[in-house]
Amino acid sequence: MPPPLAPHPPLAPLAALASRTPPLSGPRRSGRSRARCWLGVLLAGALAGCAQRRNLSEPRGPLDNLPGATRGGQPTTPRARPGVPTEAQLVRPRPDGTEHLLCAAPVHLIFHTRRFLSDPERFGPDFLAQIVSDRTKSELRARGRPEADALEYLVSNADRVGPLLASLSAGEASSGAIFERTEEKTYLLRTTARLRTDGELTNVWMSLRGRQWELLWID
What we know:
Layout (H helix, E strand, L loop, with lengths): L5 E2 L23 H11 L8 E6 L31 H4 E3 L5 E3 L4 H13 L1 H11 L3 H9 L6 H8 L1 H10 L9 E7 L2 E6 L11 E7 L2 E7 L1
Antiparallel strand pairs: 1-2, 2-5, 3-4, 5-6, 6-7, 7-8
Helix pairs in contact: 3-4, 3-7
C-alpha cells in the first residue's frame, strides 16, 4: 500500500514579489531576499495539493567535498562518474550554433542546471529556452518580469544552489534523495543531507512536458 499523502508545503503568495528585482548584470540582493522574490513569482497556489513520497536512497550523513560546490562562486562543470550523465550524451550541437538539450530524466535536469551555472553567459540562452519550465516563464511574464530573472536567481544563489545540485548529481539515485510527485506532471527532488551552507536549499521542483523534464524552481 502506498504511503499516505502528505500536505504540500505552502508557497509564498504572489503579492510577496517585489517590483525591484535587478537584471542579471545589476547589483544583487541577499540570497534570502532573492529567494523570497522567486517564491513569490512561482505559481503560488497553483501547485497546492498533495505529495506522495518515495524514499529512493537513505541518507548517509553529511556530504563533504561535494563536486562542484564552491564558496561564494559558481559550481564547476560536472565530471563523468557512475550514475552521472555526460555532455556527449545529453547535448547535441545544431548547425546554427545552438544546442539541443536532451532532458529525459530528473538526473538530466540536474546535469543541465549545473552545466548552465558553470558558464551562464555561454549556456544561458539554450538553458532558458529548453530547460526552464514554460510555466515559470509564463508566470514571470504575467508579473511583468523578464524570463531571464529565472537565470538571475540561480546565478545570484550559486553558492547555495551548487552544493544542492552536487548532492543530487545522480538524480533520484543520489545518496539521501527523496523523489515526490506533488501533482500531475509536477515533481519534487529533494535531499535530506546537510549541505553546510548558509540558508541552505534542499528542493528542486520540476515538471514533465511530453518527454522533456523542465525546471520549475529551486528552494
